[in-house]
Amino acid sequence: MAKDEGGRGQKFAGERIDVTDKDEVTRRRRQNRRHAIRGRTILYIIAIIAVLVSAGPFIWSTITSFKANPDLYTKVNNPFIFNSPPTLEHWRFLLSDTQFLTFAWNTLWVGLLVVAITLLVGLPAAYALARLNMKWSGPLGIAIFFVYLIPATLLFIPLTRVVGTLGLLNNTWSMVLIYPTITIPVSVWLLVGFLKGIPKDIEEQAMVDGYSRLGAFVRVVVPLAFPGTVAVIVFAFTLSAHEFIYALAFVSSTTEKTISMGVPTELIRGDVFFWQSLQAAVVFVALPIAFVFNLLLGRFISGFTMGAVKG
Amino acid sequence: MTTAQTVAGDRIRQAALPKRKLADRDGLLAKLFLLPTVVYIIGLVAFPFVLAILFSFSDVTTGNPSLDFVGLRQWRTILGSSVFWTSFWNTLTFTGISMAFVVLISHVLATVLVKDFKGKWILRFCVLLPWTTPISLAAVSWLWLLHSIFSPIDWVLRWVGLIEDNMYWLGRPLLAMASIIAVNTWRIVPVATVIVMAGLMAIPDDINDAVEIDGAGSWRKLREITLPLTLPITAVAALFGAILTFADLTIIFILTRGGPTQSTQTLSSWAYFKGIEGGDLAQGAAVALFLFPLLLVAAIAILRVVRRAEVM
Question: pTM score, two decimals?
Answer without folding.
Answer: 0.83
